[in-house]
Amino acid sequence: MKTRIGVALASVLFASNALAAGTTLNVGMAGADAGKLDPHVATSTLDKGLLYWMFNGLVRIKPGEASPAFIEPDIAKSWTSSEDGLTWTFELRDDVECHGDYGKIDAEDVVYSLKRSANPDISAFAKDYTAFDSVEATGPLEVTIKLKNKIPSLLGLLVPYHGGNIVCKDAVEALGDDYQRTPIGTGPFMFAEYQPQQYVKLVANPEYFRGEPKIKEIFYRYIPSDSSRDLAFQSGEIDMIYGKQEQTWVERVKQVPGTKVVVMTPGEMSVIHLNMSMPPLDDIRVRKAIAYAIDRDTLVQFKGPDVTLAAISPVPEGHLGYTADVPQYPHSIEKAKELLTEAGFPDGVTIKAIHTVLPGMLSTMEAVQAELREAGINLEIQTVEHATFHEQIRKDMSQVVHYAAARFPVADVYLSQFFHSDATVGTPNAVANFSHCNAADKEIEAARVEGDPEKQLAYWAEAQKKIMEEVCAVPLVQSMQLWAWKDTLDLGTEVHGSLNLSPPVTEMAHFTE
Amino acid sequence: MTAFILKRLGFAVITLFAVLTIVFFIVRILPGDPAVAILGDQATEASLAALRSRLGLDVPLYQQYIEFIGGVIVGDWGISMVSGRPVITEILKVLPSTIELTVASLILGAVVGIPVGVWSAVRRNKLPDYIARIGSLLGLSFPAFVSAVLLLLFFSIQLRWFPVISSGQGSSLGDRLRDIALPAINLGLIMAAYITRVARSAMLEVLNQDYVRTAKAKGIAFSVIIWRHCLRNAMIPVVTVVGLYLGILIGNSVLTEIVFNRPGLGKLIVGALNQRDYTMLQGMMVIYTLIVVLVNLITDLTYGLIDPRIKYS
């Protein structure tokens, strides 16, 4: 009898609830819970990664790539632009269905969606669309966008990323506030269920215009603990995981049998911004001394050669407009000491940085601190909790700001947000110009409205040169995006990058076993 | 008894009001801007200001406070600044998971801790006592997140008895037991370590009492003396510790929920703190305060059940 009870109990306890394999994809994402699932509001990597699988844009970047050089049709099947580049007309497909019973996408939906993206009362990305003069439905399946002035990449604003995600008008209006919890898109996967702090479940969209996805269900699981996420992958409960930007993570996960580790662009660019409005950093010799004292090769070795790239320019390598032809400051302690002596600091200098406690960023800054010490530069790091860090650096409280960010891969974005004087912290339009740099305003502005791509590239290159000449900032490294998945999962395309930072799970993705 | 309970509930209301006031001002004094947390680091100052206005963060602090307290009184705890969902709904969705884990850990802790404590006291300075004391010391010394990872490595990766992550789909008894087993063991063993030490010392004190010596002289069986006479008298300090420990248990549950990926208040509060979700933090504090006040009340009432000499006035 006892044996029977034991067997029964064991069968209840240990009965396998293994998640169905073959058509169910379990994804382990770093984060405690979903935020807002409205694509025009969602700003976190956590939310954007999920929405990527549910929405389309007028155009898209080819799955597996992150560069605007790979832009191709999505909801729009073709487009034309006027000679002056200010009027763009898009012809829409006639077979794009909204999830649920919200009908087909037409020009009205696209107009509504883009106007919503440009509305600062709703959208987190409204400033990206300030150059839009009008968006009109010029036919049932034709949309015309008129611009006030030329912008670096109109098509870049229309890919399914941030405000470029096309929402269905009827769904947004019918759901009201509930839309941010029940997103309705047109993509290969549809929202099905949300379990707080556990997962969001997506199901295949049978009406998807590129064909019904082979994967039938996706469980996007929120697993904040890095070790638990890795263990869940190791035990086979998770098919795909978000990685840590560490060499040790790559080496450890590669040991799990049947695993594919993928390094993706865009990289997160780590830059030391030097506040030129505060002494002693108002002296270019001190800034140059810092640049000479930092050894990027050592930083790359420290962070891991598989997961980082040395950064030379303030714009990340591989982004549209990047140039390596900028003044460089090869590692030289002697040169750094000479410059400090010239600047009147023969016994060294002390500078202060308010810094986040996030371990990945802090370890980089501590390595920089050790390198600077060799040249007699004492970098005092005051650590604060991450939200506090963001608040204090925006109040212009730190001499040195170490910032790591991934952005849309066009030079204008980095240059405008970090190095144009309009974006200087402490001003009404402040974004992230922590250095008070104004060395390249003219070139940045000229590039924005330049119609000739060659000239535009030249402006951007000139801007990068000037920023580096002034040493507004010292680029350190690019940390790439890391994911791992089972090698039985075939995404149907080679994956080199993803703008939304999650791998492209499209109608082509399937398990080979 | 009724008067006592009403008096305690009256104090609870005052405590709740004081906690809410302190929490309201502390979360706003903390550096960190909810608007930046929501709109991200690419938002302009103008957009951030517009959002602060929508969230009501641009009105004077006293006005925000009056609105908040007014809302709490009528049961409106506000909308989460980050998720846009009602705070009360968010909390109630995960509260059962935390209660489930806490109760399971308490039961496990008591079931293991009390007998081991008694056994240790009865065998004082003998091998079982040494084993129990060292075991409880280990239990107290181990950080909850370390023991959690060790449990996962052994039971989930090596033996594959339990899942690493909660399935979140478990509606059957088997699934629920599988989900809760390791987290409850993790917290329960720490609880057991506390209880063992308190039960042992309380038992040692009782064993030296005159009435125990009298009972032995009368020839009453030793087991009867221990379980019927001594244990009941030794229980008051144990109950006190269990009541006090609940606060620590909630603290440890934060880490346990994160490592075992269980939903619960712990995960909710960590997310709210990171994102400066003021309304959510305030709602959480209402819940935590209510839990502590209620547990203290239940603890006080339990004394009367254990020892009839205790009268409430």
UniProtKB/TrEMBL annotation, chain A:
Which Gene3D superfamilies is this protein grouped with?
Dipeptide-binding Protein, Domain 3, Periplasmic binding protein-like II
| CDD domains linked | PBP2_NikA_DppA_OppA_like_1
* Subcellular location per the Swiss-Prot or TrEMBL entry: Periplasm
List the signal peptide residues: 1-20
Q: Which residues form a coiled coil?
A: none
Asked if ATP-binding is a keyword of the record, the answer is: no
Sorted alphabetically, the keyword list is: Signal
Q: Which residue numbers delimit the Solute-binding protein family domain?
A: 71-423
What InterPro entries would the database entry show? Peptide/Ni-bd, SBP_5, SBP_5_dom
The Swiss-Prot or TrEMBL record describes its family as follows: Belongs to the bacterial solute-binding protein 5 family.
Q: What is this protein called?
A: Polyamine ABC transporter substrate-binding protein
Species name for this entry?
Answer: Roseibium litorale
Q: Kindly list the organism's lineage.
A: Bacteria, Pseudomonadati, Pseudomonadota, Alphaproteobacteria, Hyphomicrobiales
Automatic annotation (TrEMBL), chain B:
Q: Which domain of life is it from?
A: Bacteria
Q: Where is the ABC transmembrane type-1 domain?
A: 95-299
Q: Where in the cell is it found?
A: Cell membrane
Which key words tag this protein in UniProt?
A: Cell membrane, Membrane, Transmembrane, Transmembrane helix, Transport
Major localization listed first in the record, in broad terms: membrane
Please tell me whether the keyword Cell membrane is annotated for this protein: yes
Query: Which is one Pfam family of this protein?
Result: BPD_transp_1
For membrane topology, the record states: Multi-pass membrane protein
Q: Gene3D superfamilies from the entry? A: MetI-like (1.10.3720.10)
Membrane-crossing segments per the record: 9-30, 101-122, 134-157, 177-195, 234-255, 285-306
The record ties this protein, via PANTHER family, to:
DIPEPTIDE TRANSPORT SYSTEM PERMEASE PROTEIN DPPB-RELATED
Sequence similarity:
Belongs to the binding-protein-dependent transport system permease family.
The protein here is known as: ABC transporter permease
User: Which species is this UniProt entry from?
Assistant: Roseibium litorale
